[in-house]
Amino acid sequence: MKTVVLLSQKGGTGKSTIATHLAVCAERDGKKVALFDLDPQASSYKWSQRRKAEQPAVVSAAAAELANLLVQAKKQGADLILVDTAGHADASSLHALHHADLVLIPCRPSAADLDAIEDTIELASRAKPSKSAVVLNAAPTRGQLSEQARVAIEERIQVAPVVLGQRSAYASAWIDGRSVEEYEVNGKAAEEIRKLYQWMMKY
Questions:
Q1: Which of 35, 43, 125, 199 has the most CB atoms around it within 10 Å of its CB?
Q2: DSSP-derived secondary structure for 169-192
Q3: How far is residue 189 from each of residues 43, 108, 183, measured CA to CA in Å?
Q4: Is residue 153 packed enough to be buried (19+ CB in 10 Å), middle (13-18) or exposed (0-12)?
């Protein structure tokens, strides 16, 4: 069982959006997957309540419940667990990191986000021996901004090779609890999520 924690100490990076799209991608790939939402805002859980399909399972939980949830998930044969943490430094984020096999750090390629990511990288470094990587999200589909951000970030931490673009499909799909694959299976957003998922599972 692989446990992937999505971490960001800045709000608005797309953490919950990425978590839910990856969860559906895993489910469509035949994996047994669950998403544990530790964020008090419960964005991932609210997304699941708008969703017509029962899968993937999304559980809103407190940090103290995570260890027990992971034990239960492993007993039930789960292949992948995604953990959506709060968008600010708190005990739940640090608690989740102790269970992580991989930490994904969403970051928009903007000056404000690049400035803020240092705190998240520092927090991720406290995790148990695990891998961490930044996922560039909501990136302009033209220009050099994403590549410039990649170069700057890679001085500190691994950057995922898949960049998620600024595409309306991500927001449109989320309105009624769908993923981009369900919204537009052959669209560019769906292709990006599939590539990110495939990389994540191998990394």
A1: 35
A2: HHHHHHTTT--HHHH-TTSHHHHH
A3: 20, 16, 10
A4: buried
Q: H or E segment at 199? A: helix 188-202
* Alpha-helical runs (H) found in 15-136: 15-28, 43-50, 66-75, 91-97, 111-124
CATH number for the domain formed by residue range(s) 2-202:
3.40.50.300
Dihedral (Cα; 38, 39, 44, 46), 10-degree rounding? 110
The rounded percent of the chain whose pLDDT value lies above 70 is: 98
